[in-house]
Every structure is written in C-alpha cells, then in structure tokens.
C-alpha cells in the first residue's frame, strides 16, 4: 500500500479548482463567486494553521499545552451552542453549556482513550486532540439541537405543562413529552450517521484512514469504536441538556417559571 | 346562608397573599362553602387562584386544615388544592388518558356522551373540554377546587348541571373558590364574596 505525500503542488491544484468554481459562478451569473472564494481562502488558512499548530503540539509533547488547546476547543463549542439559539446570550447559559460539554464530551473522550490505550499509547496529543475533537463536535450538535427544540416548543407547551402541574404532577412528569421530543431531535444526527454509515456515506475517520494507507477492516473497527463513543456522548449530552434546561425553568415549588428564561 | 369564618383552623385560610399584580389578600373559607371572587378584568382574579394553588411565586401564607402550603411538597398541595384554568389544556391522545379513575359517573351527571371519553381532545367543543377538565380535576379528589370561569362557554342547561355537580362537591365537605362573570351564578353559588380591586401602579 502506498501513502501519497502531498505538498505545494496539490495546494496549487486546489487553488486552480477553486478558481474554476469561481469562474463558473462568474460565467453563469450565479453571484456566489466572491463568497465562495472568501470561504475557500478562510478554509485553507484555517486548516493550514491548524495543521501547523497540531504539528507543533505533537512535537512539543507538552501536556499543559494540550490541555490549553482542549480548553479553548471546549469554550468555542460552548459558545457555538449559544450562538445557535435565538434570544439574548447570557453567561449562565454559557457556563451551563460548558458544564454539559465537560461531562459529555470530555468524559466520554477519557473513556474512549482509556479503551484505546489497551492497544498502544493513546494519551498523547496525536490521539487525544482528534478523538476529543470529533466527540466534542457531536456533543455540540446534540446540545444545540436539543436546546433549540426545547426553547422553540416551551412557549406552546405552557398551558399543557401548567394543567399537569395544577393536577399535582411534578415538573418532570409535566414536561415528559416535551423532553422526549427534544431528545429525539438531539439524537437524530448521530442515529442517521450510524444507520447510514457505509451505505450512504463512508464515515470521515474510515475514509481518512483508508486514504492514509490503513487496512479497511482495521479502519472499520476504528470507526465502529468511535461511533459508539459518539453515540454515548450524544445521549449523555441530550439527557444533561434536557435536565438542566427543565431545571432552569422551574423552582423549588415545582412551578413553571418561564420568566427565568429571560426573554 | 353566610358561613361563619372558621376559627378552628379548618378550611382554606390565606393571610396577606399577594404578588406583583395583586395586593395582600386575606381570606378564609370553611368546608362546604363557596367563595366567589369578583372584580374587573385584570384585577388579578386568576392570579389569586394560581397563588392559592402555589402555581406562581407569591408572598403570604395559605393553610388547608391547619397545614401550611410552604410546609407541604408542592405537587401534594396541588392535589388537595386544585386549580382549573379557563382554557383547558390536554396532552395525551385521548380524553380518557387524562383521567385517573372512572369518569362515567361525572360525565353522566353532566349529560356528556360516554364516547367523548375515547375522543381526541382537540376534536371536542370548547364547552365539552371545559366540562371534561372539571371532571379531570374532580377525579383527583381534591379538598379545594379553584375554578376559573368554569361555565363561560356553556349553555344555561349545562351551566345548571355543572352547578349541580359542584353542589354535590360542596355537600361532601369540599371547598370551592369560584371566579365568575355571571352575576346570577354568583347569586346561586356564593356563600361569601370577595371583590378584588386593581392595585394602583
């Protein structure tokens, strides 16, 4: 098996391809040439920067630096969850999202790396950062979708929830339907990803490993292992998100306190 | 037939209850009595009922037969002191799924066809839903019913049937707090009346 080594030649070809797309847009008056070129430039610079950063990180073998990068990733993901929601952004929500990601993404990543370390060193930057990154991305998606579903449905569900509270049900029972549908929304991506894996799409990790010269069955096992981690992270994440959200709209007397959403 | 105020701590007693929109209110209702709450729109009649059920944050304290609201778990309190909103809400596929126990006794008394119990709530008329919401609350066997315009969408015959059922509830020692815009209904039902004034801002 041969592994290709890419260099400035490939960068030039990629630049040519982008120019083709932009030229096509120009010729067909599609009006996306400028945005496309800008996005492509951003993408190239971001990925090159990340590539160099990771090379530095892997070579330095500095645990503190790796930890710092992970903290920045966590904060960025927590911010993105908030940015996907309408309404004002608040510190308390950012901290809540950070907590959710710490438990679901960081916790599951630790679990996964511990599992991987049976077959070799897994707690080096080269494994920690990518594994943590994929899990974090999935958790971020799940939390954002769950939160969005909860927030968009809560106002419409108000009377239903209060009617149940008035009959002496607690907040958990009164919001069960709402939580359930939000949890379904939050786990759709990972369930689709698993159900379609290999038939509809070749998952990213597997494709990457096959391109990098890994044996396909090995790559498949790696992918299965990672998918299982992603599923766990997603489930933990939606459960935590739902629970903390419901907690944030109630008080010690099991009332529905939509005023606490601060709209 | 004005009822004497309970002095032995029995019944529903509220002292200085209020929230942002309504001032401190005192009230006291004995078993078998019906307090009608009157007042203009926006005077806080619904808010008062929701305070009594502890559905909204409030000041002051409420007791039921000597037991303080704040000493009791909120769901337990609401099972005893049950609020019925003017616009009933339903969450399960069939009416029957909302009921704990057999509703046929109550639905027969209100002349509601039995097959309504198997219907989807959103297929029913407002008046049917309103009466079924009352049945839903009665089936929880509350000590106190807080009714927010329970017969607003009903014809006169149905109103009388509802009142008849409420009379039965009262005769069994139930306590009723009733918000109604129907003066004739207040005349028929009230053992006591409370008029709420809008709090000047």
UniProtKB/TrEMBL annotation, chain A:
<protein>
    <submittedName>
        <fullName>ABC transport system permease protein</fullName>
    </submittedName>
</protein>
<keyword id="KW-1133">Transmembrane helix</keyword>
<keyword id="KW-0472">Membrane</keyword>
<feature type="transmembrane region" description="Helical">
    <location>
        <begin position="12"/>
        <end position="32"/>
    </location>
</feature>
<dbReference type="InterPro" id="IPR005226">
    <property type="entry name" value="UPF0014_fam"/>
</dbReference>
<dbReference type="Pfam" id="PF03649">
    <property type="entry name" value="UPF0014"/>
</dbReference>
<feature type="transmembrane region" description="Helical">
    <location>
        <begin position="181"/>
        <end position="200"/>
    </location>
</feature>
<dbReference type="GO" id="GO:0005886">
    <property type="term" value="C:plasma membrane"/>
</dbReference>
<feature type="transmembrane region" description="Helical">
    <location>
        <begin position="39"/>
        <end position="58"/>
    </location>
</feature>
<feature type="transmembrane region" description="Helical">
    <location>
        <begin position="220"/>
        <end position="246"/>
    </location>
</feature>
<feature type="transmembrane region" description="Helical">
    <location>
        <begin position="128"/>
        <end position="150"/>
    </location>
</feature>
<keyword id="KW-0812">Transmembrane</keyword>
<feature type="transmembrane region" description="Helical">
    <location>
        <begin position="64"/>
        <end position="82"/>
    </location>
</feature>
<comment type="similarity">
    <text>Belongs to the UPF0014 family.</text>
</comment>
<feature type="transmembrane region" description="Helical">
    <location>
        <begin position="94"/>
        <end position="116"/>
    </location>
</feature>
UniProtKB/TrEMBL annotation, chain B:
<dbReference type="GO" id="GO:0016887">
    <property type="term" value="F:ATP hydrolysis activity"/>
</dbReference>
<keyword id="KW-0547">Nucleotide-binding</keyword>
<dbReference type="GO" id="GO:0005524">
    <property type="term" value="F:ATP binding"/>
</dbReference>
<dbReference type="Pfam" id="PF00005">
    <property type="entry name" value="ABC_tran"/>
</dbReference>
<keyword id="KW-0067">ATP-binding</keyword>
<dbReference type="InterPro" id="IPR003439">
    <property type="entry name" value="ABC_transporter-like_ATP-bd"/>
</dbReference>
<dbReference type="InterPro" id="IPR027417">
    <property type="entry name" value="P-loop_NTPase"/>
</dbReference>
<protein>
    <submittedName>
        <fullName>ABC transporter family protein</fullName>
    </submittedName>
</protein>
<feature type="domain" description="ABC transporter">
    <location>
        <begin position="7"/>
        <end position="201"/>
    </location>
</feature>
<dbReference type="InterPro" id="IPR003593">
    <property type="entry name" value="AAA+_ATPase"/>
</dbReference>
